[in-house]
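STRUCTURE REQUEST FORM
Protein name: G-protein coupled receptors family 1 profile domain-containing protein
Source organism: Muntiacus muntjak
Requested output: structure tokens
Priority: standard
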Amino acid sequence: MGLFNVTHPAFFLLAGIPGLESAQFWLAGPLCVMYAVALGGNTVVLQAVRAEPRLHQPMCYFLSMLSFSAMAMSMATLPTVLRTFCLSARTIDFDACLIQMFLIHCFSVMESGILLAMSFDHYVAICDPLRYATVLTNEVIAGMGLAVTAQSFIILFPLPFLIQRLPICRSNVLSHSYCLHPDMMKMACADITINIVYGLFALIFTIGMDLLFIFLSYVLILHSVMAIASHEECIKALNTCVSHILAVFAFYVPMIGVSMVHRFGKNVPGFIHVLLSNNYLFVPPVLNPLIYSAKTKEIRRAIVHMFHCIKM
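Status: completed
Returned output:
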């Protein structure tokens, strides 16, 4: 069947909270607060790193990339989530849904790749500190950022076209207040084997491999730290990794929870699906700036100094 002969709905209907439609309006306040914290907090981190020369170092550059991807994710989902919960405007055009789907998956993969780059930063800093400055130069950091961006774009670029080739005729009601590839392909009344295989390949090759290498990097870090004779130095070395470990959990745990419910939670109530999907959406962008500003002394001081200058 040719691409231009495929039947598509003019729009999709986004889901609120099944069974709790009357209470959706009251979620507008918390959702707006979460978006404000996510956008404001990550903007503050980016501005602090830009303005403070002492933060012009590899870890803070990677943190800036993480904050940017988190902000981009929030901006990609903000229009449909707030329209669904605040205005009860649940429709989204088919083409707009494809674009949003691509952006959400793309920025998710970017965030995962940046977390892997940050784990490499910690590995070099702890396991080979004498070569840290020569290994993680500005050119290398920029190259890693471009590689992560290019990988996410190239691997996920086919997804909208894989959906566009399918006739959508089973339903046009999505399971979330935003568009995801697994959600959209289930509505097709045609063979979706290619979508399933390619989606699984993209997931394993990007997020799955990133998580594996993050785990291996921490195995090597722990092996190196255990060889340190001084207990105080051992604790100090591990303490530098706490923020990154918390960021890894904040990103991967909600994502794994959503994936597990999608695949095995057919009897789970609908509002559980929605709450877990919104955790996946909000937890990393909201928590990352809070984690790093609370656990990293230099960033905390830069933020305080920045606000002091603004007040003056």
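Reviewer notes: Residues 1-5 have pLDDT under 50 and may be disordered. Residues 22-311 form a domain with the Rhopdopsin 7-helix transmembrane proteins fold (CATH 1.20.1070.10).
Form closed.
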